[in-house]
Each structure stands twice: as structure tokens, then as C-alpha cells.
User: What shape does this take?
Amino acid sequence: GFMGAYRDATGLDPMLAATLAALLTTWVTFIPCFLWIFLGAPYVERLRDNRALSAALSAITAAVVGVILNLAIWFGVHVIFADVGEWHVMGARILAPNLASLDLLALLLAAGAMVAIFHFKVGMLKVLAGCALLGILASLVFF
Assistant: This one.
């Protein structure tokens, strides 16, 4: 929302339009989720006793986990490689990164973040802040 409104701020100051769009985007993205959770939570426990609805909720959970995994892979590949192509095989899209376009800094930051989180049990916010700081420093030093 922010970038779209900033680029096309017809009749408004770009920063004001971008801020309003960011607020609106946040509102329409998160408020329905919170309403769904707060209004539906009391009934979910009753649904567990119903086998058909419980199976449907399990299928929805599996689908959501699959979507999250797909997004994680897509973003990971597009961050680590500058050039990513696709193969289309029997209706499926398979990412085909150009190995020559490897961003070594992004790979090192991702690997370091993984080690920090899974091996050393560092909190996510600390790892995120550290990676952001290292990325900024590296861009200032090397570019």
C-alpha cells in the first residue's frame, strides 16, 4: 500500500498518501483476521467434537502450512539469487535460479541467521536486527 500510493499520489503529498495507504492496508489486512479469531474462538472448541468439521479444519491447517512453505521457498530463492527462471512441468512451476547470480552476502546472512536461531537459540528480533545492521554495513562498505 505504501509504495503504490507514494508512486501515484494524485492530489496529495506523496508521503501523506503513502502513510494513509499503509494505515488502510494494515487495517483491511489485520482487522478481519482479529475479528475472525475473537468472534470465532469460542465456537472452535465445540467444533473439535464434530468429526467432519474437525477434518475440514485439519485440511485447512495443512493447506495454510503448505502456502507458508511455498512462500518461504519463493522468497528465499529470490533473495539469494538475482536471476530466477522457471520451468513448467505438468502444470507445476519449478524455480530455476541462475547459479551465477548468487548473492553471496544474502546467502551468508541467511545461513548465519539460521545458525543463530536454531543452534544458538537467539531470539528472532535480535537476529533480524543483526542481519539488517550487517546488510546495511556491507552495502556501505562494498557498494
In short: The longest strand covers residues 84-89. Strands lie at 84-89, 92-97.
